[in-house]
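Notebook entry, structure prediction.
Reason for the run: the old model in the group folder had no record of what sequence produced it. Starting over properly, with the input documented here first.
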Amino acid sequence: MPNSSHKSVSTGKTHYPLRHALRFLTPWFSQRVTRHQWAVYDFTRTITCGRVTMYKDICIALGQGSSRSVGSALRNNPFASFVPCHRIIASNLYIGGFSGEWGTGANARGGQKNTGLQCNRKMEMLAREGVTFSVDGYLADESLLWIRRG
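New structure, fully documented this time:
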């Protein structure tokens, strides 16, 4: 994984890779983070407020992994307040998952423990950023898709 900083195309702001920004957390942080997870977290930090991208596009941009491996990394994100994992949606523009749950209402998957409340929370967070979804949980405005290749 390159150690260089990334420039956000839409804002021009520089985003420093997460592993460098969070060096101070190392003494108390005990969870092992793989190289793939670091890459996913670093990339996700570059997605600007008010935009979303897809699990698939993260793996394409990174040149590694799968949509599921990106989802797994984000589900186990130990840096939630630093990594905006709520800005990632499914390839069919569906809200996708959040905090281990997938979908909302009648579309919720994952057995009885999946209430759909976490994905509703994700939609509320995105709505505060100006990203809205249909009642069925699909992205309302495709112009808000953020795609960066490599």
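Summary: The longest helix spans residues 117-128.
The old model has been moved to the deprecated folder.
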